[in-house]
Structure prediction request, 801 residues.
Amino acid sequence: MSAAPPEGRQVVRALVSLKLRLLRNGLRRSPGRAAVYVLGTAAGLLLAAGLAFGLALLNGRAGAGDAAVMVTFALVIGWAAVPLFLFASDESADPTRLTMLPLRPRPLLCGSVLAALTGPGPAVALVLLTGAAVAGAHGPASAATAVIGVPLTVLSVVTLSRAVAAGNARLLSSRRGKDFAIFGGLLFALLVQVANLSFQSTLGRPGESLDLSPFAPFAAVLRWVPPVSALDAARTAGEGHHALALLQLAAGAALLALLLRWWLGSLQQLMVTADASTLEAARGVGPSGGRSRGWGFLPAGRAGAVMQRHLRYAWREPRAKAAVFTSIGMTLVLCVLSLIQGWSSVYLVVMAGMFLGLQMVNLFGMDGSAFWMVAATLVTPADARDELRGRAYAVLLYAVPVTALLGLVLATATGDWAGFAPALGLALSVLGCAIGVGALFSVVAPYAMPADGNPMRNAAPGQSGLTLLNTFGSMVGVLLLTLPVGGYLAWALADGGPAWPVLLLGPLYGAGAAALGVRLAAGRLLGRLPEILAKAVER
Amino acid sequence: MQASAPPPSPGAAVSIHNLWKRFGRQAAVAGLNLELPAGAFIGLVGPNGAGKTTTLSMTTGLLRPDEGTVLIHGADVWADPVAVKARIGILPEGLRMFERLSGRELLQYNGRLRGLPGAEVDRRTEELLGVLDLTADADKLVADYSTGMRKKIGLAAALLHNPDVLFLDEPFEGVDPVSAQTIRGVLKRYAAAGSTVVFSSHVMELVEQLCDWVAVVNAGQVIAHGPLDEVRGGRSLHAAFLELIGVREDDGQALGWLGGDR
Prediction:
């Protein structure tokens, strides 16, 4: 019996159970992962419930409806953006994996909608949106409208998310698209922080009563934009404008229909085109002339080659890029936060020194299995020193300017120019110590990166001890090492001694610590090459 | 055919003695002995899991053996890596390269890690790219290369410093016929100049065409080795291999429905 194309109902059931199966098998891979998933889901639901409860409490206040509109809008943006940088990790969202199966588009769409609605994400959205609907609701008309409006909005955001994913599947499953998505994700995370901070600064002044009026002008426009309109219909109906509420619901339904249509179109397109990853024509990186073309500043020999490769990776390789840019981003967010909340200090620049210096940790784990190329060419102790020196220079090349620039910005923002010199000195000594400690940890305790493409996960499972040792061990080590400089500075600040020598002392001390760390690490590197390679292979 | 403790013969490019590697309770390589003649084109054949990759990794200094010695032109790989590393070229299987470099950048990086002068690196890089038919793709990232192109750029990186002995793990796996022909041409030229090539493969026809010397590995040990004609003994290498490994003919009774009435 050769099989006929399966019936619609079968396809729908198969797709939903596929989603459940993928979820269950993903969890089965390790108990830790299952625990994290359950805890994460519970935390997400609790947070959503808390937010929903808070929104519901706003009911009756001036601007409660506006707040609900803003929350709904934020949720919509979030759902639209999520596939752009989580696409690679959610197999069930990738329609290109189903192209080999004899599926008709309509059952496929139906099954995909149901599969997309399965899982904790839509549940969180449902809870949150229910709270938002309650915030602006008033009377039975509101309740009746919300019964339609809330599910309609949930369905719309889920469909929006999947339609965006399917519409961009070709881009997202290509190597270039994935690389782009990572940067987009970082940017998005930063934007979320900025939005969060600006919300807090306009609303969250402690001691004052909650003033929702800043939302009003935005909400006045956004409430007419579907799918937000479908949710706001509950408020409109409660205020007696039944026709307007119906119009808002209709706009929401129309958008949903359009989104489904777009999704269906994309699915049909994807089902008849070849695997997207092979279609994208690869572009070159431009001719490279070794040490010429702007690379002339590199030292000669191995150190220069290593440095050039490291810098190219910091820009081109997703994991390396994510590591560098999150460390800069984290420092920036903290600085902005401190400025807004008024506890800023020029000494925050020390954090930049720490985070950027710790880019030296797990150097060879970041190379992954490509470390064999390094291992095969490391012959003499001088090679080992050059290898580590080259990488240290590469980190210094971006760490020193970023630290100095951040110091200037902080000094300008806080007006503490007297503290600038010692703060920068301390930061540079921390940077140097971090480079030394990082080099040593790289050789002594490397750990593997995960084999999957997600650059935000920075260790393969089953190595929690090693990663903890690396993260906290290196930080504690750096703090202890910098004690002499920090101690002098503390004494100078407390007893009124001169603080400026730290600008000289710090970099010198840091350079010494870095050189010592690199030397010690290089001494052990040659003897540990196969052991490091065995640890570094991604799994 | 195996001696228990042979003195390394002076003409040997590689001599492996009592090599062991265990992963957990399973021995991937179990007391392997092998002498590979210099200047030969050598094929290492064996079924999946026979220990070919593990053996090659230990022979090239990438995996530390539990026990045993490996000499390359008389120098101990594990006691004297300085004398060995500059003389060998490696193309491993299953390990990545620095794939976010372009093909040209990867070769330049490798050449400079090897300590070759910059101008010489550039000259050899361009020549290798040309011979391996990669010039048009030289500025694309290796991450965007096809399997055949990856093997070719890996081969170029392994040849760049003109090693005495070249170790290639499955150099033809997943490679299209055109690229395979290019790789064969380069390897033949390299071997004709008196260098030693050691490569592992599943493809018996290829080994038969290219090699003048073969070693058959099974369950972590060498079960046959010698000049090609000696090992195959009048049969095809394929038949000789299956017989050596002891493969049972499967008549496929269990799949009676396959190809029957639909």
User: Anything to note?
Assistant: The two ends of chain B are 53 Å apart (CA to CA).
